[in-house]
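Deviation from plan, reported transparently: cobalt (II) ion complex.
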Amino acid sequence: MKHLLAPSLLAADFSKMESQIKIINQSEADWLHLDIMDGMFVPNISFGLPVLKSLRPHVKKPFDVHLMIVDPDRYISDFKKAGADLLNVHYEACNHLHRTIQAIKNEGMKAGVTLNPHTPVFLLQEIIAELDLVLLMSVNPGFGGQQFIPNTFKKISDLKNLIAKSGSTALIQVDGGVDTHNAEQLVNAGADVLVAGSAVFNAPDPIEAIRKLKNFSAKV
Ligand SMILES: O=C(CO)[C@H](O)[C@H](O)COP(=O)(O)O
Ligand SMILES: [Co+2]
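Because the crystal trials were delayed, the predicted structure below was used instead.
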Protein backbone atom coordinates (compact mmCIF):
# COMPACT_ATOMS: atom_id res chain seq x y z
CA MET A 1 0.00 0.00 0.00
CA LYS A 2 1.25 3.49 -0.82
CA HIS A 3 1.66 5.54 2.34
CA LEU A 4 -0.92 8.14 3.32
CA LEU A 5 -0.27 11.75 4.33
CA ALA A 6 -2.26 13.62 6.97
CA PRO A 7 -1.30 17.30 7.27
CA SER A 8 -1.86 18.61 10.80
CA LEU A 9 -4.04 21.70 10.99
CA LEU A 10 -2.25 22.73 14.22
CA ALA A 11 0.48 24.40 12.17
CA ALA A 12 -1.94 26.26 9.87
CA ASP A 13 -2.57 30.02 9.96
CA PHE A 14 -5.90 30.18 11.82
CA SER A 15 -6.50 33.74 10.60
CA LYS A 16 -6.68 32.41 7.02
CA MET A 17 -8.71 29.25 7.48
CA GLU A 18 -10.40 29.45 4.07
CA SER A 19 -7.09 29.40 2.18
CA GLN A 20 -5.68 26.67 4.46
CA ILE A 21 -8.70 24.46 3.74
CA LYS A 22 -8.25 25.10 0.01
CA ILE A 23 -4.69 23.78 0.34
CA ILE A 24 -5.98 20.56 1.92
CA ASN A 25 -8.71 20.11 -0.68
CA GLN A 26 -6.54 20.85 -3.73
CA SER A 27 -3.48 18.89 -2.60
CA GLU A 28 -2.57 15.19 -2.55
CA ALA A 29 -3.28 15.07 1.22
CA ASP A 30 -5.19 11.92 2.13
CA TRP A 31 -6.59 12.91 5.54
CA LEU A 32 -6.74 16.06 7.68
CA HIS A 33 -5.13 15.52 11.11
CA LEU A 34 -6.82 17.48 13.91
CA ASP A 35 -5.02 17.84 17.25
CA ILE A 36 -7.40 18.30 20.19
CA MET A 37 -5.60 19.45 23.37
CA ASP A 38 -7.26 20.11 26.73
CA GLY A 39 -4.51 21.77 28.78
CA MET A 40 -4.63 18.79 31.18
CA PHE A 41 -3.36 15.72 29.36
CA VAL A 42 -0.92 18.00 27.54
CA PRO A 43 0.31 21.45 28.57
CA ASN A 44 -1.43 23.24 25.71
CA ILE A 45 -4.96 24.06 24.53
CA SER A 46 -5.73 23.92 20.80
CA PHE A 47 -9.27 23.83 19.41
CA GLY A 48 -12.30 21.63 19.87
CA LEU A 49 -15.71 20.43 18.75
CA PRO A 50 -17.21 23.69 17.35
CA VAL A 51 -14.17 24.18 15.11
CA LEU A 52 -14.41 20.65 13.68
CA LYS A 53 -18.15 21.04 13.16
CA SER A 54 -17.77 24.27 11.21
CA LEU A 55 -14.89 22.95 9.09
CA ARG A 56 -16.51 19.59 8.24
CA PRO A 57 -18.74 20.72 5.33
CA HIS A 58 -15.80 22.49 3.66
CA VAL A 59 -13.10 19.79 3.89
CA LYS A 60 -13.20 17.02 1.27
CA LYS A 61 -10.81 14.68 3.16
CA PRO A 62 -11.48 12.35 6.11
CA PHE A 63 -10.99 13.78 9.62
CA ASP A 64 -8.21 12.01 11.52
CA VAL A 65 -8.78 13.24 15.09
CA HIS A 66 -5.94 12.99 17.61
CA LEU A 67 -7.44 13.40 21.09
CA MET A 68 -4.93 14.65 23.66
CA ILE A 69 -7.49 14.90 26.45
CA VAL A 70 -8.07 13.16 29.79
CA ASP A 71 -10.90 10.61 29.94
CA PRO A 72 -11.77 10.73 26.20
CA ASP A 73 -14.83 8.44 26.72
CA ARG A 74 -16.79 11.57 27.70
CA TYR A 75 -16.63 12.97 24.17
CA ILE A 76 -16.71 10.00 21.75
CA SER A 77 -20.23 10.57 20.42
CA ASP A 78 -19.65 14.35 20.28
CA PHE A 79 -16.63 13.86 18.00
CA LYS A 80 -18.67 11.57 15.77
CA LYS A 81 -21.34 14.27 15.50
CA ALA A 82 -18.65 16.89 14.75
CA GLY A 83 -17.47 14.81 11.78
CA ALA A 84 -14.59 12.59 12.98
CA ASP A 85 -13.91 9.59 10.72
CA LEU A 86 -11.06 8.16 12.76
CA LEU A 87 -10.68 8.77 16.51
CA ASN A 88 -7.27 8.34 18.13
CA VAL A 89 -7.14 8.10 21.92
CA HIS A 90 -3.97 8.06 23.99
CA TYR A 91 -3.11 4.78 25.76
CA GLU A 92 -1.97 6.93 28.70
CA ALA A 93 -5.37 8.67 28.97
CA CYS A 94 -7.60 5.56 29.13
CA ASN A 95 -8.31 3.43 32.21
CA HIS A 96 -10.53 1.03 30.24
CA LEU A 97 -9.01 1.08 26.78
CA HIS A 98 -10.96 -1.93 25.47
CA ARG A 99 -14.26 -0.28 26.40
CA THR A 100 -13.14 3.00 24.81
CA ILE A 101 -12.22 1.26 21.54
CA GLN A 102 -15.58 -0.56 21.44
CA ALA A 103 -17.39 2.74 22.03
CA ILE A 104 -15.53 4.41 19.13
CA LYS A 105 -16.40 1.51 16.80
CA ASN A 106 -20.02 1.43 17.96
CA GLU A 107 -20.27 5.07 16.85
CA GLY A 108 -19.16 3.96 13.36
CA MET A 109 -15.67 5.49 13.47
CA LYS A 110 -12.27 3.88 12.90
CA ALA A 111 -10.42 3.39 16.17
CA GLY A 112 -6.80 4.30 16.83
CA VAL A 113 -4.57 4.20 19.90
CA THR A 114 -1.70 6.65 20.34
CA LEU A 115 1.49 5.90 22.27
CA ASN A 116 3.65 8.59 23.87
CA PRO A 117 7.38 8.31 23.13
CA HIS A 118 8.01 6.58 26.51
CA THR A 119 5.19 4.01 26.18
CA PRO A 120 6.37 0.63 24.86
CA VAL A 121 4.58 -1.05 21.96
CA PHE A 122 4.18 -4.42 23.75
CA LEU A 123 1.48 -2.87 26.00
CA LEU A 124 -0.88 -3.11 23.00
CA GLN A 125 -0.53 -6.90 22.75
CA GLU A 126 -4.07 -7.69 24.02
CA ILE A 127 -5.83 -4.95 22.03
CA ILE A 128 -3.94 -4.80 18.73
CA ALA A 129 -6.43 -7.09 16.93
CA GLU A 130 -9.22 -4.57 17.64
CA LEU A 131 -7.40 -1.53 16.27
CA ASP A 132 -7.61 0.15 12.86
CA LEU A 133 -4.51 2.24 13.54
CA VAL A 134 -1.70 2.80 16.03
CA LEU A 135 -0.25 6.30 16.23
CA LEU A 136 3.35 6.47 17.41
CA MET A 137 4.21 9.90 18.80
CA SER A 138 7.65 10.87 17.57
CA VAL A 139 7.68 13.99 19.79
CA ASN A 140 6.15 14.56 23.22
CA PRO A 141 2.55 15.59 22.52
CA GLY A 142 1.35 19.14 23.06
CA PHE A 143 3.16 21.27 20.50
CA GLY A 144 4.00 21.37 16.82
CA GLY A 145 7.45 22.18 15.49
CA GLN A 146 9.44 19.87 17.78
CA GLN A 147 12.40 17.69 16.92
CA PHE A 148 11.80 14.09 15.80
CA ILE A 149 12.81 11.42 18.38
CA PRO A 150 14.95 8.78 16.56
CA ASN A 151 13.87 5.89 18.87
CA THR A 152 10.60 5.99 16.86
CA PHE A 153 12.32 3.76 14.25
CA LYS A 154 12.73 0.98 16.85
CA LYS A 155 9.08 1.38 17.85
CA ILE A 156 7.93 1.09 14.21
CA SER A 157 9.86 -2.16 13.98
CA ASP A 158 8.39 -3.48 17.29
CA LEU A 159 4.90 -2.51 16.11
CA LYS A 160 5.35 -4.15 12.71
CA ASN A 161 6.30 -7.39 14.49
CA LEU A 162 3.34 -7.17 16.87
CA ILE A 163 0.91 -6.52 14.00
CA ALA A 164 2.33 -9.42 11.95
CA LYS A 165 2.17 -11.85 14.92
CA SER A 166 -1.42 -10.96 15.79
CA GLY A 167 -2.77 -10.84 12.23
CA SER A 168 -4.06 -7.31 12.95
CA THR A 169 -4.79 -4.98 10.04
CA ALA A 170 -3.82 -1.85 12.02
CA LEU A 171 -2.05 0.92 10.14
CA ILE A 172 1.11 2.46 11.60
CA GLN A 173 0.95 6.26 11.86
CA VAL A 174 3.83 8.53 12.91
CA ASP A 175 3.27 12.06 14.26
CA GLY A 176 5.77 14.74 15.23
CA GLY A 177 8.81 16.23 13.51
CA VAL A 178 8.06 14.50 10.20
CA ASP A 179 9.57 16.33 7.22
CA THR A 180 11.13 15.73 3.80
CA HIS A 181 14.39 14.58 5.46
CA ASN A 182 12.91 11.62 7.37
CA ALA A 183 9.65 10.82 5.54
CA GLU A 184 11.05 8.31 3.08
CA GLN A 185 13.06 6.57 5.80
CA LEU A 186 9.92 6.31 7.97
CA VAL A 187 7.91 4.75 5.15
CA ASN A 188 10.73 2.33 4.36
CA ALA A 189 10.77 1.36 8.06
CA GLY A 190 7.05 0.52 7.90
CA ALA A 191 5.03 3.71 8.52
CA ASP A 192 1.70 3.65 6.64
CA VAL A 193 0.50 7.16 7.54
CA LEU A 194 2.65 10.26 8.07
CA VAL A 195 1.39 13.32 9.94
CA ALA A 196 3.12 16.59 9.10
CA GLY A 197 2.27 20.01 10.52
CA SER A 198 5.15 22.50 10.27
CA ALA A 199 6.68 20.75 7.25
CA VAL A 200 3.47 21.48 5.32
CA PHE A 201 2.03 24.75 6.61
CA ASN A 202 5.34 26.55 7.28
CA ALA A 203 6.62 25.68 3.81
CA PRO A 204 6.66 28.47 1.17
CA ASP A 205 4.36 26.33 -1.01
CA PRO A 206 2.32 23.90 1.14
CA ILE A 207 0.79 22.08 -1.87
CA GLU A 208 4.29 21.39 -3.19
CA ALA A 209 5.43 20.30 0.29
CA ILE A 210 2.54 17.80 0.40
CA ARG A 211 3.50 16.56 -3.09
CA LYS A 212 7.08 15.95 -1.91
CA LEU A 213 5.89 14.13 1.22
CA LYS A 214 3.67 11.88 -0.92
CA ASN A 215 5.79 11.12 -3.95
CA PHE A 216 8.27 8.44 -3.14
CA SER A 217 7.70 4.70 -2.89
CA ALA A 218 8.43 2.39 0.01
CA LYS A 219 11.35 0.06 -0.71
CA VAL A 220 9.90 -2.71 1.47
O1 LIG B 1 0.12 15.78 17.77
C1 LIG B 1 0.80 16.74 17.54
C2 LIG B 1 1.45 17.50 18.65
O2 LIG B 1 1.08 16.95 19.86
C3 LIG B 1 0.94 17.23 16.12
O3 LIG B 1 0.15 16.42 15.26
C4 LIG B 1 2.39 17.20 15.65
O4 LIG B 1 3.23 17.82 16.54
C5 LIG B 1 2.52 17.75 14.24
O5 LIG B 1 3.29 18.88 14.19
P1 LIG B 1 4.77 18.92 13.55
O6 LIG B 1 4.70 18.17 12.24
O7 LIG B 1 5.02 20.39 13.41
O8 LIG B 1 5.71 18.24 14.53
CO1 LIG C 1 -1.21 14.90 16.30
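The chain has a mean pLDDT of 97. We consider this an acceptable substitute for the interim report.
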